[in-house]
């Protein structure tokens, strides 16, 4: 009880002391909070997306086989299908039909895809982003331009669920016939191949065999697809590096302000406290609370605001950055997968150094003899 | 004479209450997150099912270029042909790195 | 109640600028008296005061505490007096904080915080219940007619008010001994007289008062019970009233 009361006393004095420079310290806490807010938002956002990707992309094809020609992505002929199907361990080989369609009026890129479950000739299923950008709704007729310059009319049979926007926002599901018509793929040519493999451990071996069979083929296994999103929003990517650098520089400035030692006034005050009966440990406690009160307030404020920002407003402040050139940005509410490790790391990178930077320079002043004010 | 000051509110009380409130909010958000994750399971399963039925490989985050739209299928040549710095696709190019399997070359994959 | 035997304080021992501030001091401070240590600047009074008040350790010699001061010792004592010279820093600080109240030459109040907080500061490390502490502090300020200034910043006080706040602060932990170092150095005659009057009141209430001064207003004051002369680090002649 006495210990708690003593801490409260010391906190009382520390706060009185900080309030003497009200403007400066409030500004410091504000800037500090903003920095934590940005960093925490990045942590929350990137972890959420990565986790969601790792879950929902589990259903991706086990192996995708692309064909490269003259360094460019080329179409795959039917012969490859039969060749690969003979490899031991391959359960099925399906030719995939998909491609990009650029719509000039909306300046948006759509992904046209002919799925196994066809929507029927003349019909399409559209993702919510497509409909949004074209101001269309189910039942409307859309007109796409074929490779020959001809208009192809398609009826919007339905829309893909908005909840799946993160994977389907720009999708247009179309029948095989309409697809080949629009893109000029002759029968027997596919965009790439999707393989189902019985034993996951055989994937790498099968991939090797595919390359031996067809040197111009490029197999991609599901593992690689899943791990793609692990490094998205990594600290090494350009923009994030800038944000981190800015944050680190700001912290260095804070710590510098503290580390350049105490002013004569501060040293005198510590001398007075020692003279009236405060021990060295009490002085250090006071300095601890000085650093901790500011950094803890900023940390908690920043993290809480970041949570609301990312999970309640769908990272509204990041949207302009993420949208960039793409006109079509999926409307999605991120599932709040929390990276506790990331938050703890943020805590140790922000609260700890600032608190330490407040205590250490005061060491010399704190151990001064109590009778120093008398001399 | 000092009756008014009997109800003196200590600064430390204000501060510690503020900390406590924040910690409670944080805890509540944590609980909110856990509940939300549980609630989101059916939606996630729906998305997984769609991915499986359509054979999708990527999230639709950056639809401006082929190698940003289908990140996992990207190769090294396409971005290079668009522009070595992929400037026209800022900021996605700055936010997204090449996928890991392109950066880690397995032996014998010279032209992956 | 405080006995000093063979006290010496040497600064920079062994170096070319070795300085013997206090030499061979034997002194007994008696209870309930106002004792003045009289001497010019550089006589070692301030250093001696620090040693008496357990603020500084002597280079050699022994300090014995008895009477009311044994109650503030952080351990039980069987004998009438206890030697405290070689106690660890923490114990010495506790003894000093609870048993002694210091009034400094320059008051040494902390700027930017209120008068009330200044008075309560020496008691903060004790962890006493806040309400009883602040009530006691306000009581002290009331006794010195400073109730109206409780929430004022110390920068706004007049010289006399600051002096009384410094005295109130020295009394917050109910010390057995009040120690003042050149208290009238920055005060005019009137305030100096008021200061001595307050010291007399404290003495009458049972406090032991020790003052170091070279001001005649202090050492010639009729209320002073005992004057000890100090010169070049040594105790000399004594004069007692009564």
Can you give a write-up of this model?
The complex is a heterotrimer of chains A (375), B (112) and C (242). Chain A is α+β, with helices and mostly antiparallel strands. Chain A has helices at 2-19, 22-56, 78-85, 128-134, 165-168, 176-183, 203-213, 222-228, 238-259, 264-275, 280-312, 319-323, 340-359, 363-366; strands spanning 63-69, 72-74, 76-77, 90-103, 108-114, 123-126, 141-145, 151-159, 171-174, 189-190, 192-197, 217-221. The longest helix of chain A is centred in the first third of the chain and has 35 residues, at 22-56. With 112 residues, chain B is mostly helical. Chain B is elongated and about 70 Å long. In chain C, 30% of the residues lie in helices and 26% in strands. Chain C contains seven helices and ten strands. In chain C, the strands form two sheets. In chain C, strands 6-7-8-3-9-10 form a six-stranded mixed beta sheet, with helices on both faces. Chain C starts with a strand and ends with a strand.
Rg on CA atoms of chain C, Å:
18 Å
Oligomer: heterotrimer
- How many DSSP E strands of chain B? 0
Which of globular, elongated, flat, extended, rod-shaped describes the shape of chain C? globular
Mean pLDDT of chain B: 76
Proportion in helices of chain C: 25-40%
- The whole-number mean of residue pLDDT values of chain C reads 90
The DSSP helix count of chain C reads 7
User: Sheet bearing the most strands of chain C, described?
Assistant: 6 strands, mixed
Report how far the terminal alpha carbons of chain B are from each other: 86 Å
Number of distinct helices of chain B: 5
- Which stretches of chain C are poorly predicted, pLDDT < 50 over at least 5 residues? none
In total, the number of domains of chain B comes to 2
User: Helicity range of the residues of chain B?
Assistant: 55-70%
Q: What is the first-to-last residue Cα distance of chain C?
A: 20 Å
Strand order of the largest sheet of chain C: 6-7-8-3-9-10
Order of helices and strands of chain C: EEEHEEHEHHHEHEHEE
Instruction: Count all strands of chain C and give the number.
Output: 10
Shape of chain B: elongated
């Amino acid at each position: 009880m006495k210990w708690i009361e003593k801490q409260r006393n010391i906190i009382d004095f520390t706060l009185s002391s900080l309030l003497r420079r009200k403007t400066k310290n409030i500004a410091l806490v504000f800037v500090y909070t903003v920095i934590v807010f940005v960093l925490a938002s990045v942590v929350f956002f990137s972890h959420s997306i990565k986790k969601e990707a790792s879950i929902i992309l589990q259903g991706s094809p086990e192996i995708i086989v692309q064909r490269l020609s003259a360094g460019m992505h080329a179409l795959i002929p039917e012969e490859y299908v039969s060749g690969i199907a003979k490899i031991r361990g391959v359960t099925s080989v399906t030719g995939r039909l998909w491609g990009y369609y650029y719509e000039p009026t909306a300046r948006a890129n759509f992904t046209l895809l002919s799925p196994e479950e066809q929507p029927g000739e003349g019909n399409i299923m559209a993702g919510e982003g497509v409909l949004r950008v074209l101001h269309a709704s189910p039942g409307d007729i859309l007109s796409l331009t074929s490779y020959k310059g001809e208009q192809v009319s398609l009826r919007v049979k339905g829309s893909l669920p908005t909840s799946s926007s993160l994977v389907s926002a720009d999708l247009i599901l179309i029948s095989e016939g309409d697809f080949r018509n629009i893109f000029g793929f002759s029968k027997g040519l596919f965009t790439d191949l999707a393989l189902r493999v019985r034993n996951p451990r055989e994937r790498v071996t099968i991939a090797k065999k595919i390359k031996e069979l067809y040197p111009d083929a490029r197999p991609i296994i599901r593992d690689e697809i899943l791990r793609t999103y692990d490094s998205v929003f990594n600290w090494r990517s350009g923009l994030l590096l800038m944000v981190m650098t800015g944050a680190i520089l700001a912290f260095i400035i804070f710590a510098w302000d503290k580390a350049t030692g105490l002013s004569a006034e501060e040293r005198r005050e510590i001398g007075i406290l020692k003279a009236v009966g405060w021990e060295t440990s009490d002085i250090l406690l006071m300095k601890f609370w000085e650093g901790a009160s500011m950094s803890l307030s900023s940390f908690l404020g920043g993290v809480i605001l970041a949570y609301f920002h990312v999970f309640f407003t769908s990272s509204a402040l990041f949207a302009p950055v993420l949208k960039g050139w793409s006109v079509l940005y999926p409307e999605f509410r991120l599932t709040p997968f929390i990276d506790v490790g990331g938050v703890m790391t943020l805590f140790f990178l922000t609260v700890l150094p600032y608190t330490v930077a407040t205590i250490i320079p005061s060491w010399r002043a704190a151990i001064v003899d109590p009778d120093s004010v008398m001399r | 004479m000092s009756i008014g000051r009997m109800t003196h509110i200590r600064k430390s009380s204000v501060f510690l209450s503020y900390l406590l409130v924040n910690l409670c909010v944080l805890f509540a958000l944590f609980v909110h997150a856990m509940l939300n994750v549980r609630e989101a399971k059916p939606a996630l399963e729906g998305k997984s099912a769609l991915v499986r039925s359509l054979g999708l490989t990527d999230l639709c985050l950056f639809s401006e270029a082929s190698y940003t739209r289908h990140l996992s299928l990207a190769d090294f040549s396409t971005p290079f042909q668009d522009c070595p710095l992929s400037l026209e696709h800022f900021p996605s190019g700055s936010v997204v790195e090449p996928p890991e399997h392109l950066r880690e070359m397995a032996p014998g994959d010279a032209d992956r | 109640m405080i006995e000093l035997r063979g006290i010496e304080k040497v600064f920079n021992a062994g170096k070319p600028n070795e300085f013997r501030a206090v030499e061979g001091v034997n002194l007994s401070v008696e209870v309930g008296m106002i004792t003045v240590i009289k001497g010019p600047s550089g006589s070692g009074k301030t250093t001696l005061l620090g040693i008496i008040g357990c603020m500084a350790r002597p280079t050699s010699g022994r300090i014995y505490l008895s009477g009311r001061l044994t109650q503030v010792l952080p351990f039980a004592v069987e004998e009438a007096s206890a030697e405290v010279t070689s106690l660890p820093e923490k114990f010495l600080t506790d003894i000093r904080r609870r048993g002694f109240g210091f009034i400094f030459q320059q008051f040494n109040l902390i700027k930017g915080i209120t008068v009330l907080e200044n008075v309560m500061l020496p008691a903060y490390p004790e962890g006493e219940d806040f309400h009883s502490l602040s009530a006691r502090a306000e009581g002290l300020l009331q006794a010195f007619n400073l109730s109206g200034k409780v929430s004022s910043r110390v920068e706004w006080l007049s010289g006399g008010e600051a002096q009384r706040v410094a005295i109130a602060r020295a009394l917050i932990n109910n010390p057995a001994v009040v120690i003042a170092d050149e208290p009238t150095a920055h005060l005019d005659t009137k305030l100096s007289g008021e200061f001595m009057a307050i010291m007399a009141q404290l003495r009458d209430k049972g406090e032991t008062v020790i003052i170091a001064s070279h001001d005649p207003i202090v050492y010639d004051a009729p209320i002073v019970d005992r004057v000890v002369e100090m010169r070049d680090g040594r105790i000399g002649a004594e004069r007692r009233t009564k």
